[in-house]
Design a protein that fits this description.
four-stranded parallel sheet, alpha/beta, 3 helices, globular, about 20% strand
Amino acid sequence: MSKIGIFPASGGLGGSIIKHLEPLIPASSLVLIARYPDKLAAESAKGATVRRAEYDDPATLERVFDGIGTLMLISYASFEDEHRVKVRLIH
């Protein structure tokens, strides 16, 4: 059985998707991808694969989707990209 990936998995929408899928498929079928994988410790303990990646770091995206047959990609509005860059420059 191919894996189902969720990216990003630790936010509100990703969390809702995980809660919906948990009773339907085994946790071992899930690949949860997040900027902060430690937020997915409970899902990892249940058997889900947890990987680290983030939109702002292309190097983390190179192989993070390996083995995933179906991907739930949660995008964000393009105007947020400019905002995120500004925020990172301030900090």
